[in-house]
Amino acid sequence: MQSYVRIAGLLSFFISTSGFALEGLSFSHGDWQVVCDNTNTCRAVGYHSYIQEPQDNNSAPVSVILQRQAGANAQIQGKVKFAEGSYDIDGREGGNEIFKLVINDSYMSHLGPEMPAYEEQGMRFSGERELSQDQISQLLNALTMKGRVSIKFTNSTGNEWHLSTSGSTAVLLKMDDFQGLVDTPFGIVKKGQSIGNIVQPKQAPVISIPLTSASVQQGSLTTDKDRRLATDPEFKLRMKNAINQCDFVPSDSDDLKLEVSRLTKTQLVVTAPCWSAAYNYGDGVWLVDDNPAIEPKFITDSSTNYANGIIDEFMKGRGIADCVSAKRLIWNGSDFILADDYSTGDCREIAMGGAWYLPTQVSTVILGDDPAAGIDCQSEQAYNTEGMTKCGQLELANVEWKLTEVIKSISALEHVANNSELSTAYGQAQSSWLSYRNDACRAEMLTYEQGSMAIPVLIGCKLDLTEKRLKELQLTKESLSFRDY
User: Fold this and answer.
1) What is the value of pTM for the model shown?
2) CATH class of 26-179
């Protein structure tokens, strides 16, 4: 029954016919910012003050994130993160250090232990501590309070981190406004009794990668003939006209530096250097038909990597890369679709790569057809057996896609790619795990063979085990990456 509960939990929501969909939002004021994505989930983030002079460690880097899904009475989740290396460990493991939240010297509460590291879109996030609901409530009261407010975090070795309130009220009000919670009982800043315009959670768009796509095939679709096009005079002349919109446009088409990859039976992806700045660069990407009469289609000028139907864009906010932004476009069989668009917060020296995962665009990527096509998994459609089954299959397919991507990235690591015995061992281990998962979940399903919940139980079991496997392999990839480094 646990797997049934797992599936049902995925579909929990508040339903209202008056809700409406909005586009993403990014807004900042003072030392606070809010970013809302295309599912109407919002993330408000606050930092230490940049203006305040360092005194008694008042400017030690710290950040808090407050996340809330759309809908009436949606619970706010909160976490805090201290800058890497910003405190004394005093001979103990950093994750076991004792931290407290102190507000106006009248409220004090111990923080929980450091949470496990996790991965989002290939970015590793660690060092986070979860805030309790009481801590979040006290924090929100302080952040919207008029007058002078002191919010600090302390540890047992005497370090202090002061959270700025500059801009907090404006940012939290903007989050309420985006989610339709101003003048409602559920607003943070301005409460009231209205409930008519509360925004509801929106299902992330599904991107179905065709099974014939280059990203699915075991071997490369690109032939030697395709590769030779990169130096073919006629092909380079054809591409020179398309590349005119880039900063790097050689006067002679012979000087063009092209990379050619086969995408489909009749289409190629061509990349070429497009621009370069102090610590960022971008390649142009074009979709090119085999028929020379069809003009190349421009996709982006800011690619930092293309492989097998996936375009990645990755930009540093500044040279030390304590904040980044990234996009991913995925071929769905007819076009490159924006799958993910995110940043990692302000450049505040919290962590390499940035403090938090702050998306404005998210999606559910799967291989093959959408098993839940025609079903809104954020509506009551998901609560009958058929809807629960199909929405669970969709969630499972997305996790399996992520698992496939991690396995590919492990196989591409130099430490693995150059060791055939190790590569074979990882392949065998994955095959053994897959057999175990399927057998274990089939056994669990058979206990419900006579009931309508057998298939949802099977899917819930596979989802649980696949998510655990994904986390295991992400840790494996991290360990192997350090060896490569």
Assistant:
1) 0.89
2) mainly beta
